[in-house]
Design goal:
mainly alpha, 68% helix, elongated
């Protein structure tokens, strides 16, 4: 479902993509979209989380090559790379651009701020990014107490 949503967002834009469009692209009924995602905003958040995770994985894979560099050098290089990738990423630009219900700041920090330090935030965020958990599911509700 998330893959279909991301394809719709890229082809039609976030503001013009409906839940019906996503269901049709996935070959499913709209009710399934709403079972997986509470609303369009939650679907956009999941798409952003998935794309940010892909970018992070790509950067981490490249960074593994230089294990002898000192921490400050690696941290600086990775930080610059993250900023450049996020600024130039076409899909991320669409997901947080005009017509999106989610800003990049919200997408990047909401889960971090909600995480209580017990690992539940990362696990639940990954489930949401994969379209497997709704924010209203028990796993997500437990993050907020």
């Amino acid at each position: 479902m998330l893959k279909a949503a991301r394809e719709c967002f890229l082809s039609k834009g976030v503001g013009k993509t409906t839940m019906d469009d996503v269901a049709r692209a996935a070959g499913e009924k709209r009710q399934l979209v709403y079972r997986l995602f509470l609303d369009r905003r939650e679907l956009v958040e999941a798409a952003i989380n998935a794309r940010v995770a892909e970018i992070a994985d790509e950067i981490a894979a490249v960074d593994q090559a230089d294990a002898d560099a000192d921490f400050a050098e690696v941290f600086t290089r990775v930080s610059i790379t993250v900023i450049e990738r996020m600024r130039s990423d076409h899909e991320l630009g669409i997901l947080v651009g005009a017509g999106s219900p989610v800003s990049l700041h919200e997408a990047l920090w909401n889960d971090v701020l909600a995480d209580r330090g017990d690992g539940s935030g990362a696990a639940a965020g990954a489930g949401t990014a994969r379209g497997r958990l709704r924010k209203t599911s028990p796993a997500m509700r437990s993050r907020t107490g």
